[in-house]
Amino acid sequence: MKKALSMAIVLGLAIGSVSCGQWKVSALKGKKLCSIPNASAPGGVMMDFNESGVFNQSFTVRVFDGKIYTADNMLKRLQVLDRGGEPLLVIGPRVSREDAGDVRQSSFNFSVIGAMAVDSRGSIYVQNRLMPSGGAMRSERSEEIDFSPSYILVFDKSGGLLHTIGQKGSPDIPFYYIEEIQIDRHDRLFVVSRSFDTWSVYRFDNRKRDFYINLGAPDFRETEKDETYTGRVESVRTFSSGEDFLVSVAYYHGSRFKYRKIYDYSVAKGRKEERTAITIPDPKNELFNLIDDKHLLLWNVEGRKIKFAILNLDGNVINNVLVQMQDNKFYEDIFADENGQLYSAHVSRKDVEVMEWK
């Protein structure tokens, strides 16, 4: 299943896409999975518009193992939907039986719901960020970094809370700004967190932390022709094996962009490998995802068009694909599931349209 989905993007589009020695851009086709209504009933999400009609992103949509997951910070709930948008599970404040019908419910009091991930057993990993002082919830698109303490909550597939994870595994010390959480194929949890100038990568086997590393500016300095370039970590992506992870670093001379490098870090060695996976001179191409532990997706946003360059780990381009976003939407998001399959969410005033791209 995994290779069938991801390789359809990587190789299936390569047939007939070479012209005069150049890679053409192949447009992916979008298929609508469902529309999630702007509603408080199970199966919906509550949208937040201010008095001027400006949309505040208060919810997240993701897809894992063929199911749609929504994290709604207006209604303080997490939902699992089938591909058609029918609700299967609601975790949060209980809904009346009249509204919920036969939908399974599990009571929980979330603060601010952040990143999500799901393992092979269907267990749901959710960032629960404690409300900042003053009680105001910041938009997920806010330019400010919110260092309010966070924990990772782990629920079973029926919505029962299994345990809470902090920096050391036990909930003694919270995480702060969590950039992302990821699950490897052995169901180990990776947490990527950051401060202003330091990034941290944690790996947990069940509740036991078995790997931790800090990455800061001193780790990424390069000198060329008597000029020193300072690297800034931009993102971290883990291999599904859980034994390596990629670190994307943008190098600058003052405020001038020089190039971007993607490093392969070994968990066993606790440091980056001798080789650099790839060097990217174009500032528009950023690391988006890692597929099958073999291919990188770099993305480049140009207006309503999102272009993806697909490369192997030697830096050779395999293909280029394009996703065309929609017009007249308040907000759009593109994301991948655990297999690298691409999806998108498109917000209008009445609903969220979820699309699959192949």
Cα-atom radius of gyration: 21 Å
Number of domains: 1
CATH architectural category: 6 Propeller
Biggest pleated-sheet summary: 5 strands, mixed
Helical/strand content category: mainly beta
Distance between the termini: 15 Å
CATH superfamily: TolB, C-terminal domain
Coarse morphology: globular
Strand content: over 45%
Instruction: Report the count of strand segments.
Output: 31
Low-confidence stretches: 1-22, 134-143
Question: How is the largest sheet built, in terms of strand order?
Answer: 3-28-27-26-25
Into which percent range does the helicity of residues fall? under 10%
Report on this model:
There is one protein chain. The protein has 358 residues and is mainly beta. It contains two helices and 31 strands. It has one domain: 6 Propeller (Neuraminidase). A five-stranded mixed β-sheet has the order 3-28-27-26-25. Strands 7-8-9-10-11 form a five-stranded mixed β-sheet, with no helix packed on it. A hairpin with a 3-residue loop joins strand 25 and strand 26. The protein is globular, with a radius of gyration of 21 Å.
Task: Give a quick summary of the entry.
This protein has 358 residues and is mainly β. The protein is 4% helix and 55% strand.
Defining key terms:
358 residues, mainly beta, Neuraminidase, 5-stranded mixed beta sheet, disordered N terminus
